[in-house]
Amino acid sequence: MGSNLKFVCFLIPVLILGMATVSGSAVAQDETVNETVISGEGIVYQISFSKANSSISTTVVNPTDWEDKITGYILKVDGQRVHDANFRLDQDEQQTEQINITPGINVNQREHTITFSTYENTTRFNFTREIDSTDSETVPAPHISNVEVKDGTAKGEPSAVANVTIVNPSKQLYSTKLMVHTVDTDGSLYPASVRPGDSRTISVELLDEQGSEIAGEARLYTGNMTTEEGALDQVEFAGQDGGDTSVRDASYEPARPTWMSDNYEYENESYERGIGEKLSRGHDVEGIPVVYPAVAFLVGVGMLRKWR
Length: 308
Known about the structure:
Immunoglobulin-like; 5-stranded mixed beta sheet; elongated
């Protein structure tokens, strides 16, 4: 009877605290918030959220008379599961964990929510954070890890291509898009979503001449390419089939896509082709763009007719 009374006395004040956390807590800048959650079977969770460290610390204790008690919880950040745990605890046994919530933060949101759920009880922490969505080192987000210029196929036809590899190290699934511009390609757009913790390579059709040196840039974004909102990454690249492709990070710059008036065009003086090369579309006669002999022939014919 004495032990049961002690347990009831311990449980009542803690249960009141646990019920108070269901609606959630707003967390101020650099604040640490502590909450207590009681599962439906009497297991007690002491939860501490540190906004400064982007971490959740949980201490679970079994104050009941049961031995080898099974319990567990699920932790979500911005709607995505970042951690789950299961325990078997004897009477008065406790365990502590610390979880980094950063991989679950959605970089496209300003308002964020952490949800802690256990059997028959839930609590939430709400906090605000301004995030540079293009800085994938601070908060994990999809980014372009490599670009390789190759001769390949597009739509079943031979074509120059850029093989763009995208990595998503976060726990979030983003609806991303990839737009590639080169000197001769006004814009190739591809859906580019990558599952959390995975990567994929997209073969992008280019209108540049196969085998030539090709320079361009690739943008990865969500939403609208004409604004910085939803920007994720931008790189500049240069290379050709059979050789290395150099890739460097670039600051994200909004751009108008091809279907808009006054659309963006990529320029790079080091890789610009002359007007003769562009008109010849890569065809030449003994190394001379075919347009020049053709023009010379037409001029000669015109002169001959004039003399007659």
